[in-house]
Structures are given as structure tokens and as C-alpha cells.
Amino acid sequence: MKVCTTKAETRATLAALRKAGDTIGLVPTMGFLHDGHLALVKAATAECDRVAVSIFVNPTQFGPKEDLASYPRDTDRDLEMLRAAGVDVVFMPSPAEMYHADKQTIVDATALSKILIGKIRPGHFRGVATVVTKLLNITQPDRAFFGKKDYQQLRVIKTMVRDLDMPVRIIGVPTVREADGLAMSSRNVRLTPEDRKAAPVLNKALVMADKLVAEGITAKQLEREVRDRIDAEPRANVQSVDVRDAETVASVGGRITAPVVVLLAVRFGDVLLIDQRVVSPQKGQR
Ligand code: PAF
User: Are the CB atoms for 125 and 154 separated by under 8 Å?
Assistant: First the structure.
């Protein structure tokens, strides 16, 4: 496994692989890897000849009062895991290597970035879209792999790639969960033991949503039921519950007749957890 800390070395390494005829899969991460990231690596390995992983805690997607400084990091462990998973190339730049001191250009999705999580974290998706554009330009992969847990992020990236004619296929990979249903996230380690015990309420509420949609319910009723279920857990501080069209994330009015995504953003202490589930009135499931 080759570990590159500069853009130039990464470009040269991947260019040589491409020249040899290999297809490249990119898995962008912010490190502190878990089984969810390894599922992305596995999907990339199944679909591409070579797998590149980036590890970069991107400062521009954190707000001034957010957890950039306390975001968990363990590079040695990350590299061990990636080596064991058979990854070919790791790109691990410093912020100074990644961003020009006089950077002036940003990439943003005009509407998608400002709704849902974009309201709770203004500027977050601009930071994501910009860094993902840079990572795609540096690595020039055939495919790039992202978790479906970050549903809105995946929509933003797919829309950006479509709108800007970027020559890459974006692949969404299903959420990996702990045994008690909590979606895997690097932020889970920052939960107190009590909050960690309470956090599976998100998945419980999503499973309940699945049943309610199968029985027939309006989007507004579903939002209320899901919010009430999570509010019943005193440690949970609900930031948002949204039921949106699964494809476009547009608002849904009236009775649910087509697949919708239930999007959750819930704080436990100062840790913001997100989760999602696509539910369909026909099958009661994705
Ligand atoms: O999902 C993440 O870990 C990050 O938002 C990403 C896509 C690596 C961009 O920094």
C-alpha cells in the first residue's frame, strides 16, 4: 500500500496504474475508520481494479462552533485497517497541501445545500462539494464510493457530478449498523456511555416509520410520530425529522404513495448524529 501525502505523488501513482489499464475506485474519508468505511472499500474492491482511499479531516465543512478540533483521529490504526483491507493507495494530505493559502473558488449546490442538514450546518455542503471536487480532480477515479447514511451528502455529490459533467460514477453504499442498530459513525466514540445506550432510539424510530408507511400515513403524520418516538428518550435532542421524496429530497404533501426517505438529525450532548431510512408504501421497505 502506497501512502502519499502530496497531490503530485498521488497523481503520479494513480496515473501509472491507469496507464497499466487499471480502473480506479476512490473512497473519500475523514479517517477514524470503522466497518462502514470498510464496506465502502469492499464495494470499491468488487467494482474496480485498484482502490484509493483519502484520509482528510476537511476544515471547510465544519462551522466555527463545530467539532473540528475534537473530531477523532488515529492515523496509525486507519493505515493498519486499510493495509489489511488490501487498499492500494492512500492520499493523506495536510490542510496546507490541500488548500492554497489564497484559495478563492468554491463549489456549491444552490438549493440542495441549504435545506435539511444545510440549515443546521450552514456552509457544510459547500465545504463537502468543494473538497470532493478537489479529491476527484486529484485522483481522477472511475468510481467514487459514499455511504448512504449521509443521504443528503450523497444527493449533493450526485447532483454536482451531473451538473458539472464530471467523468466519474458515484456509488451509494448501504449503511452499516452496530448490533443494537446504531448507524456506524466516527462520531459515536464521542458519545458518553449513557448517550451511547440511548442512541439506538434513532434506528428504532426508523423501523417504526417503516411499519407506519406500510399501513398508510401522511408525511406530516409520519414526521410527528417519529419525532414523538425519539422525544420519548430524554437524552435525545431532536434537531430535525424530515420525510422527503427518496429521489429528489423534495417535500412530500399528503398521503405517502411513493418511496420516501426519513431523515434524522439528533443531538446527544454536543454530538450530532444523523440517520436515514428509505421506506416505500408498497413493500414497507426500501
Ligand atoms: O463523509 C465524509 O466523511 C466527508 O464528508 C467526505 C465525503 C470525506 C468529505 O470530506
Answer: no
Give start-end residues of each CATH 3.30.1300.10 domain in the chain.
Answer: 186-279
Residues 6-59 pLDDT 10s: 999 999 999 999 999 999 999 999 999 999 999 999 999 999 999 999 999 999
Class of CATH domain 186-279: alpha beta
The pTM of the full predicted model, rounded to 2 decimals, is 0.94
Of residues 237, 248, 241, the one with CA closest to residue 206: 241
pLDDT band for position 173 (cuts 50, 70, 90) = very high
Q: Is 62 in the pocket of ligand 1 (CB under 6 A)?
A: no
Length of the chain: 286
Homologous superfamily (CATH) of 2-173 is HUPs (3.40.50.620)
Q: Going by CA atoms, what residue is nearest to atom 7 of ligand 1?
A: 28
